[in-house]
Design goal:
Length: 248
């Protein structure tokens, strides 16, 4: 079909870091098999929960470079991923109900958000030897400070749960909800499986469909089966694309 009419599938592995290397390996294998190649993105956390720092020259840093060299796109995904801010009002509700203390950039000031973004960008780019694809806040949650910092950043792309956009201009490049799964409880898992099944029927009209997986997904066979089915369902009908292709 003409490029202007092409429909794409964008897939990503979140929370990539040395503390989840085994889980990321398993997910990378699943995505590679389902998508017939390493055509997906990884969201890299420089120091997950201040306990798993990524350092240049380490074995894990070398793995990141190898993954990037294979064509996997690398996003900066916060710095700690953990939310350590005090929230009020709507932000407090988001922090409590939308994520388990994972929305690191929801309550940061502009200056602090900018510092963590820039430090993350510098670290990831030094390791992979090329420009990072963009920035995606942990749990897809951005406060006003983070949004202001993004507008002044050098990142080409940003993403939240409902869209992908160019930070400097606000131009939206893809719309529609990310298909993702929850493993924290039986009820959340059941709900995410039902939503994924519905998405496999309802989201075909979207120009771009996004699928995101997390290290915790490997703990439940039902989630892994749903991920595989979902990826294959959309890959049969559309091109497996890259985030950077949205800029074209």
């Amino acid at each position: 079909m003409p490029a202007s009419d092409a429909r794409s599938l964008l897939a990503s592995i979140h929370d990539v870091g040395p503390g989840a290397e085994r889980q990321v390996d398993r997910l990378a294998g699943l995505l590679t098999d389902a998508l017939d190649g390493a055509r997906f993105a990884m969201l890299v956390v420089p120091d997950h929960w201040a306990g798993y720092p990524i350092r240049s020259g380490t074995a894990f840093a070398n793995r990141l470079r190898t993954w990037s060299d294979s064509g996997i796109e690398m996003f900066v995904h916060g710095w700690y991923h953990k939310d350590m801010a005090e929230h009020r009002g709507l932000a407090r509700l988001k922090a409590r109900y939308m994520t388990a203390s994972e929305g690191e950039f929801l309550g940061l000031s502009r200056d602090e958000a900018a510092r963590r973004m820039e430090d993350g960008r510098a670290l990831v780019e030094d390791i992979i030897g090329r420009k990072a694809c963009g920035f995606i806040a942990p749990a897809w949650l951005y406060g006003s400070g983070a949004m202001a910092a993004l507008r002044d950043s050098s990142f080409d792309l940003a993403e939240d749960h409902m869209k992908v956009w160019i930070p400097q201009t606000g131009e939206v490049l893809a719309r529609g909800p990310v298909i993702t799964w929850a493993s924290r409880s039986t009820a959340r898992t059941a709900a995410s499986l039902a939503v994924a099944a519905l998405a496999r029927q309802a989201l075909h009209p979207l120009r771009s469909v996004r699928v995101a997986v997390h290290p915790g997904d490997v703990t439940k066979a039902s989630i892994l089966s749903s991920i595989e089915e979902t990826l294959k369902c959309f890959a049969r009908r559309r091109q497996v694309g890259s985030y950077r292709s949205l800029l074209a």
